[in-house]
Write a structure and sequence with these properties.
The chain is mostly helical. The chain has helices spanning about 5-20, 30-45, 50-65, 80-115, 115-120, 120-155, 160-195, 200-205, 205-225, 225-230, 260-305, 310-355, 355-365, 370-380, 380-390, 390-400, 415-424, and strands at about 230-240, 245-255. It is found in: Membrane.
């Protein structure tokens, strides 16, 4: 045994002694090394695979006087990296909890928004299809999360079937998430037109145009995601299994050569993410200004109500303004939550296109779980927003829960006052 081999042998004996397997140190081979590393990785007692390998490399570097070339990609280094990696270790469990709650919450959203007295409003139709898209995203995310975060770390197996599903998951989730972005953008523009041109809203905001907006929101995403279909594909890598036998690992990766890689991130970062966020920011600021103007208008009406003959008219107008303000505040909360979720993804996608594969693999992949969690929470929390900010939603949900089991499948007859309020 050469001097360097003897030093590596001694280093591994130290690791065996620290792991409680010193009795087996006399018969060390490649299979034994792999099995011990795998055992330590799955034991979960403070020594994981990464820390063991770091110890091996560090000891070998110091005892053999090796000079390891530093990584030229220095993006996303620092103490915060360890914090994010710690969260990534529990992301699978947290995402399963959020997806379960989100599927139940959005199912209730769909049940309420499809009631006859709610489905008549175009905005409620947009919210319903937004909930449908979120349900599909979360349902599909569950098997992905179970296998990647719970099954794969123990099996350490990368079959072709998993790579195929991972590729499907990437495209399916991006298409439906882009559909959610288009629906949210349509929702904001719809509300802007309804308030800005209130005297012509019955002409501009028609049922036919609402259907067209919904249909466009589901047709446009596959077209926008076409560069992603062409960039990412299944790749292979020669590895060794736990017994030391040669094996092939299948994984999904991008083709970083050529301009198509850059175009993909520019389309994803600018057109799909940053452009809608910019439009939503402008509309949100305008809606905030509209709410402020409405509050000033209500104050003026209260001063005008000192005249007894105008008191009844002022009360009626005040009630209509309050109903409009509640709807605007609810939609504004949805838009702001959407901006908090999508803006970081747009910035990361744009920087990946500008700085290349190095930034993508070091930073975008690092923050991937956090960005996924923000998107899942954004889709799961809408039910709470609707219940807390819409009295009509709460009343319809209460009726849905309290009515007889067989009667809930029959649409209730809308009263004249409800129909009048909805049209208003």
């Amino acid at each position: 045994m050469t001097n360097k081999s003897q030093i590596l042998y001694n280093i591994f004996q130290e690791i065996l002694a620290a792991s409680g397997n010193s009795s087996d140190s006399q018969s060390i081979n490649e299979t034994k090394i792999l099995s011990v590393l795998r055992e330590q990785a799955t034991r979960g007692q403070g020594n994981n695979l990464g820390s063991i390998l770091v110890k091996v490399v560090s000891d070998a570097q110091s005892k053999l006087n090796l000079s390891i070339k530093p990584d030229p990609c220095g993006y996303c280094d620092g103490d915060f990296r360890h914090v994010i990696e710690t969260y990534n270790g529990i992301h699978g469990y947290v995402s399963l909890l959020v997806c379960t709650i989100g599927v139940l919450a959005n199912s209730m959203n769909i049940a309420v928004l499809t009631r006859k007295d709610m489905a008549a409003a175009p905005i409620n139709r947009l919210l319903k299809w937004l909930a449908v898209a979120d349900v599909f995203v979360m349902v599909e995310y569950v098997p992905f999360s179970i296998y990647k975060y719970l099954v794969l770390p123990e099996k350490l197996d990368f079959p072709y079937s998993w790579a195929m599903y991972l590729l499907f998951h990437m495209h399916f989730a991006q298409i439906l998430h882009t559909a959610s972005i288009c629906l949210t953008l349509a929702l904001a523009i719809w509300r802007y037109v309804a308030i800005k041109y209130s005297d012509r809203s019955h002409i501009l905001c028609t049922e036919r145009r609402c259907s067209l907006a919904i249909l466009t929101s589901f047709i446009l995403p596959p077209i926008l995601c076409t560069p992603t279909f062409m960039v990412f594909d299944i790749h292979t890598k020669n590895v060794s299994d736990v017994n030391g036998n040669p094996d092939i690992a299948y994984h999904v990766d991008s083709d970083s050569q050529g301009t198509l890689y850059q175009i993909n991130f520019w389309v994803h970062g600018v057109i799909i993410k940053l452009l809608p966020c910019s439009i939503l920011t402008v509309i949100s600021l305008w809606l905030i200004g509209a709410l402020y103007s409405a509050n000033q208008h209500q104050k003026n009406l209260r001063n005008y109500s000192a005249c007894p003959s105008a008191e009844k008219m002022v009360k009626r107008q005040h009630k209509a303004d309050k109903r409009t303000d509640r709807t605007t505040k609810m939609l504004l909360a949805v838009l702001l939550l959407f901006l908090v979720t999508e803006l970081p993804q747009g910035i990361m996608g744009l920087m990946s296109g500008l700085l290349g594969p190095c930034f993508f693999k070091r930073c975008y992949n690092l923050f991937g779980e956090i960005m996924d969690m923000l998107a899942l929470v954004n889709g799961a929390i809408n039910f709470i927003l609707y219940c807390s900010m819409s009295r009509q939603f709460r009343q319809t949900f209460r009726q849905l829960l309290l009515q007889r089991p067989l009667a809930r499948f029959l649409p209730p007859a809308a009263s004249h006052s409800e129909s009048h309020n909805q049209n208003t």
